[in-house]
Amino acid sequence: MxxxxxxxxxxxxxxxxxxxxxxxxxxxxxxxxxxxxAIYFASANFDVPAKFSLWIHEQGGDSAVLETKVGLxxxxxxxxxxxxxxxxxxxxAGLRWRRWLLVxxxxxxxxxxxxxxxxxxxxxxxxLAGSFEQATPIAMAAMAGILSERSGMFNIALEGxxxxxxxxxxxxxxxxxxxxxxxxxxxxxxxxxxxxxTGLTGLLLAWLGIRHxxxxxxxxxxxxxxxxxxxNFIFLRLLQHNTQxxxxxxxxxxxxxxxxxxxxxxxxxxxAKPYVYVGYIMVIVLTYMIYRTRWGLRLRASGEKPAAAxxxxxxxxxxxxxxxxxxxxxxxxxxxxxxxxxxGSFQMEMTAGKGFIGLAAMIFGGWHPxxxxxxxxxxxxxxxxxxxxxxxxxxxxxxxxxxxxxVVTIVVVAGVVGRVRGxxxxxxxxxxx
Amino acid sequence: xxxxxxxxxxxxxAALIFAAxxxxxxxxxxxxxxxxxxGxxxxxxxAGPTGKAKIVACVAFDTGGxxxxxxxxxxxxxxxxxxxxxxxxxxxxxxxxxDYTNNIQTLIDKGCQAIVTVGFLQSKxxxxxxxxxxxIAFAQVDTAWNACGPDFTCGNADDTxxxxxFTGLDYQVDQAAMLAGYLxxxxxxxxxxxxxxxLAFPGVTRFMDGLYAGIQYHxxxxxxxxxxxxxxxxxxDPSTSGTFVGGSGGxxxxxxxxxxxxxxxxxxxxxxxxxxxxxxxxxxxxxxAMSEAGKWAIGVDTDQxxxxxxxxxxxxxxxxQKAIDVSVLDFFNQANTGYLxxxxxxxxxxxxxxLLSPFHDYDTQLSAELKAELADLKSALGLxxxxxxxxxxxxx
Lengths: 433, 396
Description:
The complex is a heterodimer. Chain A starts with a helix and ends in a 16-residue tail after the last helix. In chain A, 52% of the residues are buried. Chain A has two domains: 122 residues; 288 residues, ABC transporter involved in vitamin B12 uptake, BtuC (Orthogonal Bundle), CATH 1.10.3470. Chain A is mainly alpha-helical. Helices cover 71% and strands 4% of the residues of chain A. In chain A, helix 7 packs antiparallel against helix 8 and helix 7 packs antiparallel against helix 13. A three-stranded mixed sheet of chain A has the order 2-1-3. In chain B, helix 5 runs antiparallel to helix 12 and helix 8 packs across helix 9. Chain B has a six-stranded parallel sheet with strand order 2-1-3-4-5-11, sandwiched between helices. A six-stranded mixed sheet of chain B has the order 7-6-8-9-10-12, with helices on both faces. Chain B is built from twelve helices and twelve strands. Helix content of chain B is 39%, strand content 15%. By secondary structure, chain B is of the alpha/beta class. At the A-B interface, strand 3, helix 5, helix 8, helix 13 and helix 14 of A face helix 1, helix 8 and helix 9 of B.
């Protein structure tokens, strides 16, 4: 303790350091309390069995089983809490506690899950695999949001663009399927049409926001409203009576060769719908593009300080146009997931807020593709866990369970990510000098 | 989330404008055809009332909307049948719970003389409108006044005598669901059946109760040990632990097929091979997931084998169906004779107000024995010798 106090003094001392140290001690005590809480839970129902299984190769086949006691899982959680508490108290403000919090969360989630299940055996493969599938459209929306906001443009219109994408994909894919009977062709053309439609919507948003300097929130809202109105209108007038135009061939899961044969991991990670893999690739490519290329540097410059970027000869306007069109293309892909892969057909307002959740994931993820992806994943995991718990009938009110995804997202992401800062000039119109 | 909700609300109001436009115009609705209860209807194409003047008949739809392939569409079919029968018709469509009152008022302003509101959630709005407009005949799909307010239950704040111009259109759909449950218990290969609802209210949980009762009856009669996941009917109040989509009661509850797909997959993971979703368009995602897994589903509200269409419908064993369209038209016909209401309508197995849909693809695969047992159970339910409630934890 004295050692940390000394280092704090050496490294500048002063009020800020003392505050940081005090905050660190408070955290340390809080972690220790968590440990005590875990011990209390452990003693409360020590002998209740906990049985988790994961399919090894396929659903209904052999499974890998972890069989233990709820109490033991709580004790693991208690030990983890104690270790983090000890580190925090010993190292003081120097500890990168947010990373250690991640270490803490895993055993706590497992123990909490086992406790809630109260002896009911649970199969977790779909909870994990489903997290990725649930996260995919959200993560894609977040990627589109990141591109726009990094370039300095708010993109509230993601929800509407996804809706347009879902609609266009379903209808085009159905028509092509009727005409050719080729599933792959129908799907690809459907996705391409969706991306084209939403790319154009992105262009519209850019034109309103850049050319006419319209308030970007308003412009996005207008597009959202318009998207709901137009898709509902065509649905009611056309698709409702001609269901064959709204029956696209659905995108099937694709097992990656070799990788999907991996025991346990195969069914979770490598037997998903192609969209999920595209999502992984998108995160990697965007991270590289935004942080490692000249284009990315210019993109970030137009979002942070467009005037300076303009002074050194960067065409901020062109960058923003391109970013918004690209964001439009991505949100079209995300939208097509909803109708082609998840729902099997278009339904009115089927986005159900996923575009906005994508925006939240973007913010939680600190406007970074990887962060946003994990934020989406947290949301997906909380969602599937909630499904599992309610299906197995734990004694928690369904209304409470249904709020779990939101609560978990806020707690985990706010705790782990901490304060984030968006691009400085996002939402401000740019005057080319 | 508040921001997103508000923006969604904005979006919704725009859609309302569209909906209002479409209801204002003389809609040339062609018969949808193919639905179970009656043949295709042809729009008469008359711009105004000709010959004998019939009343203005209107429907206020619930959220989840037209095209839900469920109870809204069924009510719409009732309205289309009314139009074909010479009624002047209007409709309005809710995008969220805040629209209910305005929607009904819009219809009143248009001069509607008989108004059917769709869905349990419109209870308060409908009751208020009925009290304020004693000359207009109101009916509400999926509720019963039962002398205690439009929410099925006695002993709470809205306990008032039934207005003389209110008809609750109530469907004892648990009877149809009990048949479906018996069928499911006879068909399942894994011994596990799953169900979930949109929100925990009576119009939804009745299906789940019935399904549970049917499975218990099969277990009792045939010595099987089929289990139901998602709804433990042996509890006094299963809704505290049942599986529900949750959400705001708007689109995230009833039109969320991604969530439906995920729920079905979680059911599959736990060994369930038949799922009965009671959640409007959300359930379509579940039916698709069951179809892709080569397993089965039981439809809700309408004959979903017909409304969903191939190839997804190959999963549908049967549907627990409400004849909403028939009762809506009946109500209009009664209102046309000057009847205002004051009594609830109850659709049962006995009066064909609820029914089990045809088996379609599975007609030849179901054993004659199972079919005969289903027919026996159907007549026993009709006679009242077998009751759903005797199998439930809350009793009769």
